[in-house]
Amino acid sequence: MAEQSVVFEIEMPTGGSVEVVRHRFGSMSRPRVAIVSGIRGDAPEGMRIALALMMFLKNHEQHMQGCVDIYPCMNPLAAEQGIRLWPFFDVDLNRLFPGKENGHPPARVAHTLVQDLQKCDYVIELRGARPFFQEITQALVRSEEAASLAMNLNVQLIWKRHPGPAASKTFAYQFPNTIVLEGGVGNQLTEDVGEQLKNGLLNFLVQVGILREDVLPFSWVGMERPVLVEGYSVERIRVSRAGFFIPEVALGSTIQKEERIGTVVDISSGNLREEVLASCDGLLMALRVQPIVSLGTMVARILRTQ
Amino acid sequence: MSVIFEMESPLRTPYQLHQLEFGNGEGPTIALVAGMHGNELNGIHSLNMLISVLRMQKIRGRVLLYPLVNTFGADECNKRFPFDQNDINGAFPGNPNGHPAQRIAAALYEATAQADICIDIHSGAAHVRELPQVRAPISGLALEYARAMKLPVVWKRKGEYFSQRGLVACWRQREQIALHVIGGRGVTLDNSLCSMMASGFSNLLAYLNVTTAMSSVQETIEVTKQEIEVHRAVCGAFFVPEVRVGEQVQRGRLLGYLQSPIGGERIDEVRAMNKGIIMTLRANPLVHAQELLVRIACIS
Ligand SMILES: [Zn+2]
Question: Could you give the CA distance from residue B176 to residue B35 in angstroms, rounded to a whole number?
Answer without folding.
Answer: 21
